[in-house]
Specification:
The chain is mainly beta. Helix content is about 15%, strand content about 45%. The chain has 2 domains: about 150 residues, membrane protein fhac (Ubiquitin-like (UB roll)), CATH 3.10.20; about 220 residues.
Length: about 400
C-alpha cells in the first residue's frame, strides 16, 4: 500500500534522526528531532465514527507523541485485519484497554487507507470503499518513584544452622550446590528461668531467675559434599571453634555446701569439634541429623552449676572426682521459616558418655514473640534447667 509505505518511510526517517531515543524504547518518536514531520498527516483521511460499519485494515497505538508497539495493548483489541467493525466494537475495545489499568484516557480515531479497497463481498455493507486505520491515542498513567521502587524486605534467616548445631546447607538457602561456607555464630545464655533438682544435699530443690552469663562465639567452616535432590539429602562436613566466655563467673561449691562466686580459669575456654551432617527438606521443614566429635562435649557442664565437679562431689556426695565431659555429641534439628526474618526451630544435643547423662534442647521460638529470644532445656540425671538464650548467626561466606 502506497500510503503505508510512505508512513513507514517517514517513521524510518524519524528513527534515523533520533537513534538514541529509538534504541531505548520499543516506540517510534514522532516529535523531538523530527518535529517538522507530522506523521498524523500520513495516516490518511480522517473519517467520522458516527456511521459504520467499516472494514478494518490495521490498528495503531500512539502514546506521548510516539507510535508504540505493545503486544498487551494490541491483545486487548478484538478487531483483526479484514474484520467488519462498528462504533460499538471500538467502544468495547476502549473499555478493555482501560481495564488494563495502565491508562488515564483512551481515544480512538478512524482514517481511510488510500489504495486499500474493501473486499467485494462487503461493498454493499461498509460505509467506506476503503479499509480503515483504527488509531488509539492513549494517555499512560504516571508511575511515581515510590510505587516503582521495590519494597525493602527483611533478609531471610540463615538455614546453615539452628542455634548451636549446623545443617548441611549453606548461606540463606540459595546456595544448594556443593561448596564452601563460613558462619559466624553468637549465642548468649542469659540465665536460668526455672530449674528443679532432687539432689539429696542441695539447700534448694527449685531455682529460678538466676544469672548465668555464658557467651559462645563460634566460627563454623563447612564443605557441602552432596547437594539435595528429591530423594537424597544434602551432606556436609566441617569444623567449629567456639570461644566460651563468661561475664559472670560460674558459682562454685565449697565444703560447707554454700555458694560462692569467684573468678577462675574456666571463665574462658576454647571448645572445638569436627562434624558430619545430613539435611533433607520435607515441605516447609528442614530436618538435619549428624554427629560432632571434640571438646564441644564439655559444654553442658558450663550451663549449670549442678554439673560441675564440686556440685557432684558435695550435692550428690560423690567424692570420686566425676566430671561431666564428652567427646561425641550426636544431634538432630528441625528448622522452618514461617517468615523470612523469624526462623522457627528445635535442636537436640546428646552428650554421649558424660556423667549424669545430660541432654540440651535449644528451641528457636522468637517467631511467636517477635523477638530474638529463645529458650533452652537442659536435662540431666537428677534435675533440669530452663534457660533464656539470645542468638545471632551471620553467613560470612557465601553472603546473601
Amino acid at each position: 500500500m502506497k500510503t503505508r509505505a510512505t508512513l513507514l518511510a517517514v517513521l524510518g526517517a524519524a528513527i534515523a534522526l533520533c537513534p538514541q531515543t529509538a534504541a531505548q524504547s520499543n516506540s517510534v518518536p514522532i516529535s523531538s528531532a523530527a518535529a517538522s514531520i507530522n506523521v498524523f498527516n500520513y495516516l490518511g483521511g480522517k473519517i467520522s465514527r458516527e456511521k459504520g460499519p467499516w472494514i478494518l485494515g490495521e490498528v495503531l497505538f500512539f502514546s506521548a507523541g510516539r507510535l508504540v508497539s505493545e503486544s498487551s495493548w494490541r491483545a486487548a483489541v478484538r478487531g483483526t485485519h479484514g474484520a467488519l467493525y462498528t462504533n460499538a466494537d471500538i467502544e468495547a475495545d476502549i473499555e478493555r484497554l482501560m481495564a488494563l489499568k495502565k491508562f488515564v484516557q483512551v481515544d480512538a480515531d478512524l482514517y481511510e487507507i488510500s489504495g486499500a479497497p474493501i473486499p467485494h463481498e462487503f461493498e454493499g455493507v461498509a460505509v467506506s470503499t476503503s479499509q480503515i486505520r483504527l488509531v488509539f491515542t492513549v494517555t499512560e498513567k504516571v508511575v511515581s518513584e515510590s510505587t516503582t521502587k521495590p519494597r525493602a524486605k527483611a533478609p531471610p534467616a540463615a538455614v546453615s544452622g539452628v542455634v548451636l548445631t549446623p545443617t548441611a546447607y549453606r548461606g540463606a538457602g540459595r546456595y544448594t550446590t556443593p561448596g564452601l561456607g563460613l558462619d559466624i555464630n553468637a549465642a548468649y545464655y542469659i540465665g536460668r528461668l526455672y530449674g528443679k533438682n532432687d539432689f539429696a544435699l542441695t539447700p534448694r530443690k527449685t531455682n529460678y531467675i538466676d544469672r548465668l552469663g555464658v557467651w559462645l562465639l563460634t566460627a563454623d567452616g563447612k564443605m557441602q559434599l552432596q547437594s539435595e535432590t528429591a530423594l537424597r539429602p544434602a551432606v556436609a562436613g566441617g569444623v567449629q571453634a567456639t570461644a566460651l566466655l563468661r561475664d559472670s563467673p560460674q558459682p562454685a561449691i565449697d565444703a560447707n555446701s554454700t555458694l560462692t562466686v569467684k573468678a577462675s580459669n574456666s571463665n574462658a575456654q576454647i571448645l572445638t569439634d569436627a562434624y558430619l551432617v545430613a539435611s533433607k527438606q520435607f515441605g516447609p521443614v528442614r530436618a538435619s541429623a549428624g554427629v560432632m566429635q571434640g571438646t564441644i562435649g564439655n559444654l553442658a557442664a558450663n550451663l549449670s552449676e549442678f554439673l560441675t565437679p564440686e556440685a557432684i562431689k558435695f550435692y550428690r556426695n560423690d567424692a570420686s572426682g566425676t566430671t561431666v565431659t564428652s567427646h561425641t555429641v550426636p544431634f538432630a534439628s528441625f528448622l522452618a521459616l514461617p517468615k523470612p526474618e523469624y526462623p522457627l526451630g528445635i535442636e537436640i544435643m546428646k552428650f554421649n558418655g558424660a556423667a549424669l547423662n545430660p541432654w540440651l534442647v535449644n528451641i528457636k521460638m522468637g517467631y511467636f514473640l517477635r523477638l530474638n529470644f529463645d529458650v533452652a532445656y537442659l536435662k540431666y540425671q537428677g534435675g533440669y534447667d530452663i534457660l533464656g538464650v539470645i542468638q545471632f548467626r551471620y553467613n560470612f561466606f557465601p553472603q546473601h
